[in-house]
Amino acid sequence: MNNLAKRIIPCLDIRNGRTVKGVNFVDIRDAGDPAELAQRYSQQGADELVFLDITASHEKRKLLKQLVETVAARINIPFTVGGGVSELADADVLLSAGADKVSVNSAAILRPALVDELAQQFGSQFVVVAIDARLENGQWQVYRNGGRIPVGRELFDYAREMQERGAGEILWTSMNHDGTQGGFANEALAQLNSLLKIPLIASGGAGKMDHFADAFRKGNADAALAASVFHYNTIPIPVLKTYLKEQGVIVR
Question: pLDDT tens digit string along 178-191?
Fold first, then answer.
């Protein structure tokens, strides 16, 4: 996948209709109105957006369809929505509301056949499997429910299974790196990418512009996702893209 232009993807974690951000999946604080942020990123040159209702699976709530419609009406870039998608009907609602892709995480762990069903119904390009994993005793262990529950699966094995079931992309968040702004898990990214034929989105750890360059050059990621550095305007997207071009990274 590495000959394609690399993508920069702001992630909007939604809780109770607001964008929030935490560190290592805890210490959550407010980061603004999702529709306003989405519009700003679209105008700034983001390639895509990911919109996750981080409490949907945990609180057994369905996504706010209205919020998806509002965001979709204000942007002109592809848009992935996740959180609480556990059946085809959920995905259908999101697609109808304006989402370009759906992201599944906990539901795919609990019922892997969901990924097959989504791919068959909508096409693989519509299906993003999000994986949260933490490095423990030398192994990347997969977690569900917003990083709350270990599931006894190893990252590389699980990601390969999701690809075989029809996932169009893997969005992997390193829980060890999430919110720390210390850089992405590049070694594991490169290893994971070498096992996959589908695009890999790196998530967890962006703090500086060179972290993005490293995710692409060392981690071989196809896209890099971040939240805090964009929400609080630490790294403006146009500045980041100029920097990456100067570093020889192909971006749109």
Answer: 878 899 999 999 99
